[in-house]
Design brief:
Helix content is 47%, strand content 14%. By secondary structure, the chain is an alpha/beta fold. The protein has three domains: 79 residues; 231 residues, Spore Coat Polysaccharide Biosynthesis Protein SpsA, Chain A, CATH 3.90.550.10; 134 residues, Serine Threonine Protein Phosphatase 5, Tetratricopeptide repeat (Alpha Horseshoe). The strands form two sheets. It has a six-stranded mixed beta sheet with strand order 1-4-3-2-5-9, sandwiched between helices. This is Glycosyltransferase 2-like domain-containing protein. Pfam families: Glycos_transf_2. It comes from Cavenderia fasciculata.
Length: 473
Amino acid sequence: MKKYIKKKNSMTLAVSIKKQCYYVIVRHPPTIHSIVTRQQIYHRIIDYYPWVSRGRYNIPIQHLIDQRFKKYHHDDDDHHQSSPSSSPTSTSNLVIKHSITNVNNQLDHDPLVSIIVPVYNHLEYLSTTIQSIANQTFKDYEVIIIDDGSTEWNSFQKINTIFNQFSNHLNLTILFQDNYGLSTSRNNGIQMSRGKWIFPLDGDDMIHPKTLESFIQKISSDSSNDHSLSTTMIISDLEGFIQTGINTFEPLLNWKIPLFSTSKLLTKNLFHCSAMFPKQWWTDMGGYSNALWFGWEDWDFWLRADHHLRGGINPLVIHKDYFKYRIKPGMHSFCKDNFKLCFAMFQTLHSNYYTLNEIIKAHRIIGSRYSIIQQPIINRLKVFPNEYILHLWNGLAYEYSSTDRKNITSIAKKSFQLSIKNNIKNDWQPIVLNVMCDRGTESFLESKRDLFDVFKQYPTLKDSLVQVYGNIF
């Protein structure tokens, strides 16, 4: 009798899975977009029937998918694959697993603003964030949510519930990717966007209902030609808040955007992340950096933009607390506790913006804190193996990590050589550090020849190195 019940339940579930395959592959409801590969269908079914993957029923789910897929789809999987299997290395390399969008609520023109909302866990806050967007008085925008591989229980269903809640009111798209971090999430969202202006908003923060309207009015009143628009960003003051009830919030702090200057931006981040900027900035600069495992992606972006744009950034500031920054219990900042270390890594990422003496000092700070940074860097390199600065930091960490100079130096030298191989910026740092690994050996005389071209490009570099390493050049 038990066998009969188990068999009956298995058959019933198998029929349900077949119906689910049909629903996903054939009907393509308006809320589902680009879920067309076998692997994507499998994950979607597991989301709906999580007990199947635990072996409770002996059901050949992959075989069922193959059957339905072949019956209703005759194209190859590769033709429909929405994302590459390799890790993201640039803004042109999407890593989207699948997406959902409300096709019936698309605008009949490209929106003026694209609001980019990355989210990783803490999905209980996402609905409040999206509601603050839906309350905007200015309506010519699209919303793109990027789930960065959330691991919370039933995360897909939670996000899908939010989609169903707002899809009739918003031009809304949700992208799902593996956990690659905040920068990749923003980059993927921006790459999929159609707006002229980009407005990043993290998935636990909020904005005032008049935020977008005020931003657009500020642009219209301040800019008289397209050239000035190309260097313009718009930002409001910040209000930090805590949530005290289901829909009740209490402000804790206010931050006024300070007066901008390029010299100040070199030593302090003058802006929060939720500023509106032209999409062309992102395109020209290659997006947000994936190397900054400790944070500061937005500071890096603003600094590169200021040096890239002719005349630098033109920030238009609205001195009202339109940006609402959520302060969560137990929030902890690695950079706040290790500011000198993080700033040293930040400086080496922008070696052309700081003095040579500052960069060489930064090398020593990074190397002296190897026990803190070595494992995070190794973990990051597994995901982004082509980031040259990660190899540079890894080499510095190894160089300072042991008294066993012969063994450790060979590992450090290998890291510096990988940094040189991936060094598309023609940065002098990995070349010099690779040579310095040979000091005190017979190879040093030969290695020094690699420095001649570097010294020509940076005439004062030799003097700076002499101050640190002595007159060995």
